[in-house]
Amino acid sequence: MKVYFAGSIRGGRQDAELYRKVIAALKEKHQVLTEHVGDLSLSTVEDKGDKTIYEQDTTWLRECDVVVAECTQVSLGVGYELAYAEAHGKEVHIFYRPRETQLSAMLAGNERFHIHRYTDEAEILAQVRNIQ
User: Fold this and answer.
1) How far is CA 40 from CA 21, 73, 100, 116, in A?
2) pTM passes above 0.70
3) List of residues 6+ apart from 10 with CB closer than 8 A
4) 26 has which bridge partners?
5) Cβ distance 52 to 45 under 8 Å?
6) Which of 122, 74, 66 is nearest to 96 (CA)?
7) Engineering a disulfide at 52: which of 6, 21, 48, 66 sits with its beta carbon 3.0 to 4.6 angstroms away?
8) What φ, ψ does residue 118 adopt, rounded to 5°?
């Protein structure tokens, strides 16, 4: 299965190490199209150019089977990716830590999205390994 992993880049890289681990767990069974999101050296200012990034990411979103998003760090880009995925009929799994953030009602209230709360790294890794 092809997975599009979404996590904050320009909105903040506080969870980059967690993203790397989530991507590694997903790769145990699936192809992850957006491995770079977990790259610890990835800068908040990418040098590819905005249009190139948009075109590549929307291509991957159309190509994927499922979207997995970590939404604890607020990100306009991730929000856009989730709306794009919904518009294209993609299965979406959203993960977040409720002790650190309140998930937007636009995500939490969407019955098409699978919302997963977690408290620590072990819990999210176990949950993503169960995505079929």
Assistant:
1) 11, 16, 22, 24
2) yes
3) 44, 45, 75, 77
4) none
5) no
6) 74
7) 48
8) -150, 160
Question: Do 94 and 124 form a contact (C-beta atoms < 8 A)?
Answer: no
**Cβ–Cβ < 8 Å for 103, 115:** yes
Show pLDDT as tens, one digit a residue, over the chain (132 residues).
Answer: 999 999 998 888 899 999 999 999 999 999 999 998 987 776 655 567 899 999 999 999 999 999 999 999 999 999 999 999 999 999 999 999 999 999 999 999 999 999 999 999 999 999 999 998
Residue with tokens 């291509």: 59
Give the integer Cα–Cα distance in Å for 72 and 53: 22
